[in-house]
Specification:
alpha/beta; VC0802-like; Rossmann fold; about 40% helix; about 425 residues; 9-stranded mixed β-sheet
């Protein structure tokens, strides 16, 4: 019995004439995820991928890696057997006996001609063989087609018959790097990491911007938390870039110039402007935030509309309709929950107003900004920025500090705008 991993994709079926493009990206993602693990073969057959490990002992590691490949609906660890019922029966009985179920079902998919029977016939005949075998050990075993405790799946594809009783969910969605670039405004909390994951799951490639302040004596800076979140998310998309913006000096300027109740909204406006400039450097097609409508004062519909006013780039809020329980559930699933539980000093609560505005109007925020040199603050924040580049390769995530040439050009352009004499000199 040879082990075979069946890699089922779901949404790619709907892609029509573009399906081959998405399948090629999915194949590349599988290969890249498993680059350091022994893989004997990977073939596409009858609307599924079949992967044969090169070493049985590597199967658990292969399965764990595949669970992070966007585009895979589920992965089954199967056994390849001859296509006759006489050959299927002993293997199916052995697999089901390991489960020792009180009730079970058989489900068959036939994606090959010349099988000799329909799927219902195969389910019925193989089910009888399994039932007789299990009842010899436990006479109370029953068939349960509506809610079985265990299921024996049979997939008949051209030239192969595959049996399995275990399968695990993949992340679903679309393969990495198929939908364009986005900039994620990343806090150290639960929400923005989950928002990033949800957009990455749609094939978007995320770069991250984190705004941090100086740590207090009792808490660490949020920088380390942001770095760990990006490190955790990088295996899903293979590479990531994290922009770390020192924001406290900008905040102090806002505090000195604006009414207290509007501070947080003005912080967020300024963050969006800086992220917009970084999006230009990254050639990104939009911004992503972790806002959930009315979860906190700054996330009411009125405030969100006032914050967004004037942005000339789409702003995506994939958590807009989610409640906190849904967000925390997904944070646990993707591995960022414990990271966000670590105590850290977030910059937004710094200089927090006693009574933040919850129904702000665009005109009110515009009036508060009238005395602020916005281009100067944007430039100040971006000039304070350091950049970390992450890469997932051969099972490890590495990082290095390096500023891209496009970001350097952006900084130069901002300086030149502020100082025309400098531009003329060059």
């Amino acid at each position: 019995m040879n082990r075979v991993f069946i890699l089922h994709y779901h949404e790619i079926w709907l892609k029509g004439g573009n399906k081959n493009y998405f399948l090629s990206r999915l194949r590349s993602a599988v290969k890249q995820s498993l680059a350091d693990l022994p893989v004997q073969s990977l073939e596409s057959l009858a609307e599924r991928f079949l992967l044969v490990p090169g070493d049985e002992s590597a199967a658990p590691a292969i399965l764990e890696r595949l669970r992070r490949v966007f585009g895979l609906a589920y992965i089954a660890s199967a056994r390849e057997v001859p296509s006759s019922l006489a050959d299927m029966g002993p293997v199916a009985c052995a697999l089901m006996a390991e489960k020792n179920p009180r009730n079970f079902a058989v489900r068959a998919k036939i994606a090959a001609t010349g099988c000799g029977m329909h799927s219902m016939d195969l389910e019925r005949q193989l089910g009888r063989v399994i039932l007789d075998h299990l009842r010899a050990m436990n006479p109370s075993v029953q068939v349960n087609l509506s809610n079985p405790e265990a299921t024996c799946w049979v997939e008949v594809v051209p030239g192969k018959t595959l049996l399995y009783v275990d399968r695990v969910d993949g992340p679903g969605g679309l393969p990495a790097l198929t939908s364009g670039r986005l900039i994620v405004l990343l806090s150290g909390g639960f929400d923005s990491a989950v928002a990033a994951y949800k957009m990455m799951r749609r094939g978007c490639h995320a770069a991250f911007v984190h705004f941090y302040g100086n740590p207090s004596p009792s808490r660490d800076s949020s920088r380390g938390v942001a770095e760990e979140i990006v490190r955790t998310l990088t295996p899903y998309q293979f590479t990531s870039r994290l922009y770390l913006v020192a924001f406290e000096a900008v905040q102090r300027q806002i505090v000195a110039s604006a009414q207290e109740s509007f501070r947080v909204l003005l912080y967020r406006r300024m963050m969006a402007r800086m992220a917009r400039e970084i999006a230009r450097a990254e050639r990104a097609m939009g911004l992503v935030t972790g806002d959930s409508v009315s979860q906190v004062a700054s996330q009411t519909l009125h405030n969100l509309a006032a914050i967004d006013h004037g942005l000339d780039l789409p702003l995506y809020r994939p958590l807009a309709g989610d409640d906190k329980a849904e967000i925390l559930r997904l944070a646990r699933q993707i591995g960022t929950y414990k990271i966000s539980c670590e105590p850290f000093e977030d910059c937004c609560p710094r200089f927090m107003p006693r009574a933040p505005a919850i129904f702000a109007q665009t005109e009110q925020l515009d009036a508060e900004e009238a005395g602020i040199d916005i281009p100067a603050l944007v430039r100040m924040g971006l000039e304070s920025t350091s950049v970390l580049n992450f890469k997932f390769e051969r099972g490890l995530v590495t990082s290095r500090e390096a500023t891209s040439r496009r970001f350097e050009k952006l900084l130069y352009a901002l300086k030149a705008t502020a100082d025309p004499n400098q531009a003329a000199a060059h």
